[in-house]
Input
Amino acid sequence: MKVTEAFKRGTPTLSFEFFPPRTKEQEDNLFAVIAELKKFNPDFVSVTYGAMGTTREKTFFWVNEIKHKYQIEPIAHLTCVAATCDDISRQLDQLEAIEIENILALRGDPPEGQREFVPPKDGFGFAKELISFIKKRKPAFCLGAAGFPEGHPKAPSLEADTEYLKQKVEAGAEYVISQLFFDNRYYFEYLERTGKAGIKVPIIPGIMPVTSLKQIKRMTEVCGATIPAHLLQQLEKFEDDKEAIKKIGAEQAISQCQELLKAKVPGLHFFVMNQAEPISRVLSQLTSFRR
Output
C-alpha cells in the first residue's frame, strides 16, 4: 500500500520511525518494540538509513520484516550519501524485489567528522535530484521528503527553505514528514509559508518525546530545532533523574499532540528512537486519537 492512500481516509495517520540496530541485543529489542507499538495500529513506519550507507542492508532487512512479518506498511529511507546513480538504481531494484512501495528520499547528513556534505562522484548533491531520478527510474514508488519547520540549518532563509521544499514536491515528493520541533507555532507558521508557496501535499508533524537531555541537545544542534526555554529549564532541573525527564518529555509531547490533533493535522509521526515505553505513554493519553 502506498502511504498516500492512508491520507484519503479522512482521519489523522499514525506513524513511527525506527533505526536499524547494530547488535544482536539491539535487534531483539527492536523486534519487541515493533510488536509492542503494533497494538496502536500504525498506518506506516519508516526505517532510517545510516551515514555512508553503513546500514543499507539492515534498512532493507527491516523494511522487509516489517512488511511481511508484522504486516505494517514500511517506508525505506534512501539518501544521496556515498551512492552513485548506478548504486541507487540497484537499491531501487532491491526494494522493488521485496515489494516495498514507499521511499523517503533524503540528501542525508555528512559522515561524522565531515562538516559539509560532499556530493559523491556520479551521484547527487540534493534530495530533489534523488527524487527526480527515482521518479524517472521507478515511477511506481510513492515518494516522501523531509521538511524543516524552523528551516534547514544550511538554508540561508526561511523563504529559501520553502522554495527548496517546493522544488522537491515538483520533482515528485507526494508527502512531507517534518523534522522534530517542540513549539507548535513553528509547524503552523511552516504550513502558512508552504501554503502560500502553493505546496499542497500533506505535511506530517514529527514528534519526539524527550527521554534524555544530553541526547535531545545533540539532536537539536544537528537539525536546527529549538528547545523552548521553559522546557529546557525543566529538563536541566531534573537532568540526573531519568524518570522525571521521561515524565516531562511525555507531558510535552502529549500537549503538542493534543493541540496538533485539534488543528486537524494530516497525521502524527513519532521518532521512536527504538523505545516503546515513551510512545506508549503518550499515545495512551491521547483520548481523541484512539485507533
